[in-house]
Protein: BTB domain-containing protein
Organism: Rhodofomes roseus
Amino acid sequence: MSADPALPHKRARTEAEDEPAMKMELKHDEKVWLDDGNIVIVAQNVAFRVHRSVLSLHSEVFRDMFTIPPPDDEETIDGCPAVRVSDTADGMRHMLWALYNGRTFPEHGQVEFDVVAALVRMAHKYQISYLCDETLSTIKELYVEGFLDFIACKPRSVHPRLTYKVEDAFQVVQLAHLTNTPSLLPAALYLCCTSEPFCNLSKNLQCFLADRGSSQFPYLKYLTEEDIFRCLSVLPRLVQVKLWMFGTIFSGISPDCVENAMCKAVWSSVTHDKFFDGTMHSPDGPIDTNCLETIADDVMRSTLLSLDGFTFCYQCSNRCGEREDEARDTVWHEMPTYFGLAIPNWPESES
Ligand SMILES: [Zn+2]
């Protein structure tokens, strides 16, 4: 693959001079320009020189495209027939590179979510099913199989396979619809509900009415109106579940408690101070919908500070941790039903 971005190109179709894309100066892609290629794909103003046979082998869409007889005034670039597509240059580069490289992603290390998302779209559009499956499975590693563990980590920034930011969830929802992968929806819709604009409704309600928040929350464009309605209607349920989580985790001291009097005092402080003062918010503030968040350790740590070093005994603190694991498992199991979704093979609750 050579790089020669400055080479001039031939154009047979002079009548298309008025099209904005044709006015931009074409450049050879630095990564995917094969000197012995026999076709040039043009995305935006970037030209990719590749092989018909290779594209046909991988993609039914390209195969069909190449069976159509070329027009008399067929555009050629460097002597090769040129095909202009409406995709982004980045998306096309990612896809072609994956096709020629034999491997979509490196075996180890993190890949950029935006790259994976672009590949899902391209693989879906060009009907390259193995590429679509492989890229979706990378997204599933975080948003399905690994989600409950990942979301328990604090800080929640590093997943071994995929970069993460909470706004990516909006795009995951769209990819789930596009590829008919409903198992991605519970985690993605849940994350949408825990982030702006949903978690700060009273402040942001206007953004749902005015141009779907395109200026303030550009990622809202990835949701359909049905998705938005789903998220809005599930918010009270998530708040309710969050309160249930708190009540379940701190539902009393352990039967095996070894510091009865102290633990009872700590428990009373937790339920009164932390629950009624700490988890309730003023109506104007953000609502706490992140019911899959781990809270036991943080609450116990803050008790340690506020009670001059007193906290639960080892047994009670363990019991709170166990209750939290069970409660999170239950909530994760029920998450699809909150959104009115029936997901085949969704994990059963272990508790
Ligand atoms: Zn105890």
Observations:
- Residues 253-254, 257-259, 263, 312-313, 315-316 surround zinc ion (CB under 6 Å).
- The CA atoms of residues 199 and 287 lie 5 Å apart.
- Residues 1-87 form a domain with the Potassium Channel Kv1.1; Chain A fold (CATH 3.30.710).
